[in-house]
Amino acid sequence: MIEIYWGTPLSLLTSPEGDVQKFGTIEKARYWLSRKWPVSDDAQQRALTTIDAAMDCMAPVGEARKAFMTAAQTAGFVPVLPTQRVA
C-alpha cells in the first residue's frame, strides 16, 4: 500500500495520564478513528468518510486532516504543539 502524504504529523494528548499519539499518516488516523476512538458521533463519521474519500483521491487530504482534528476535539483529545511538553 502506498502511504498518502498527510502533512506535518499531528500530536494529540489522548489520555488524562499524559499519553500522546503522533499521527504521521492518514492510515494511522483512519485506524484510530475506526478502532480506538473513544466516542461514536457525527464528527467521527464525517472524518472517516472524508479520510476514505481522500485515500481514494476523491477529496483533498487537507479536508480529511481538518475533519480528523474536528473529531479529535469532540472526542476530548488536545493538540500538542511541537514545542510543548506534556507533564
Structural account:
By secondary structure, the protein is an alpha+beta fold. 45% of the residues lie in helices and 11% in strands. The protein has helices spanning 26-36, 42-55, 61-74; strands at residues 10-13, 20-23, 78-79. Helix 1 runs antiparallel to helix 2 (42-55) and helix 2 packs antiparallel against helix 3 (61-74). The mean pLDDT is 91.
List keywords for this structure.
87 residues, alpha+beta, 11% strand, 3 helices
Strand content: 5-15%
Helix content: 40-55%
Reading side by side through the largest sheet, how are the strands ordered?
A: 2-1-3
Give the SSE order as H and E letters. Answer: EEHHHE
- Sheet with the most strands, sense and barrel status: 3 strands, antiparallel
How many distinct beta strands?
A: 3
- Terminal Cα span: 37 Å
Q: Which spans of ≥5 residues are poorly predicted at pLDDT below 50?
A: none
Quaternary organisation: single chain
Quickly give the structural class: alpha+beta
- Radius of gyration, in angstroms, nearest whole number: 13 Å
Shape: globular
Mean pLDDT: 91
